[in-house]
Amino acid sequence: MKEGFARQFRVATVWLDGCSGCHMSLLDMDERLMALADKITLVYSPLVDAKEFPDEVDVTIVEGAVATDEDLAKIRKIRAHSKVIVSLGDCAVTGNISAMRNPIGLAAVTVRSYGDNLPADNLPVLLETVLPVHQVVPVEVFVPGCPPSADTIHHTLVELLAGRQPQLNELTRFGA
Amino acid sequence: MKSRKGLKLTIDGQPVSAPQGATLLEAAEAAVIPIPKLCHLSGLSDVGACRLCLVEIQGNPKLQPACMVNVREEMVVVTNSERLARYRRMILELLFAERNHFCAVCVSNGHCELQALAQSLGMDHVRFPYRNPHLELDASHSRFAIDHNRCILCTRCVRVCGEIEGAHTKGILGRGTTSLIITDLAQPWGEATTCTSCGKCVQVCPTGALFEKGRAAAEMIKSPDFITNLLEQRGPSEARTEVERP
Residues of A with CB below 8 A from B116's CB? Predict the structure, then answer.
């Protein structure tokens, strides 16, 4: 990261157990996205077509907590192929809304939601406890907020592009 | 305030004068040196529960809570060091990990002392496993409710109820992380006969644990400073003067 990224900066975004609000906030950067597009290749994202997570990614922005066996497999693969992981938003950073089921217990929550009709075969298996991303794999950058503002996300990306660790205290907080 | 002999000490390299019997926290605040705190509230007794006001005192290898230490002549105190910042972040992380804090949907979002401290002290994630305890919400009172998920056990509510309102409704049950704020003999708040429904406990609560019913997310704005005004109105005979500590 020291020389900055002279070549195109390879960015991925991932949507785990979250509401997509953080991705909406990312799109809220509006025209600043155009300036970023000159420096960034979006190699994997809910917003693009790629189906497989690429081998080499400079920065992966993760929205959402780890809540299923599928999330678990995804985030481990992401970690193996990403230089920097950004936990974007409170669900990724703390568990937040996704983790509100933790104190109630998985069994009670699924019975309340599905009764006896919990689909068994074709859905990812819910983990007993929803976890923030950094409690599964190491994370380099934490961006609290529900969702973090477009300004916060823009600042984060600009700083990472310049090879610096973003300082976000003044810009965002839990629940922002 | 009674005129008392001034003591001279040094806080963060700054010469400070404070009356005998004052705590380090009071002396620092009078000199506009901010020290993070959660359980302290001006007008209430101090209990040293939250440990956020830990400071370094020259000659003492242990960190001391500034709210529990009286000023002494020639004392040299550091309120802000890398070591203190590290411990304070850790204390905040433990508070967040201990119960269930969901800032985004909390009545006190944007007006919470715990949330504000996390931001100002740079605590942007919790390194400890969350405990996810199963805790109840008591909404049996006609106007107020308590959500134990958001309680940090600072005991401000217990102290304001006893020391300012004189009702002694609020108390603590149990020990350690399983402690609970209770009303009377651990009956539902709505059935607590000693409660005057004054709402002081709600106003002093630093988080969204105590709140007025009918408030949605981020709508609960509190005014804990009423105590200072109240004590001024009551005059010196009734005012709780600072206790002289040995």
Answer: 173
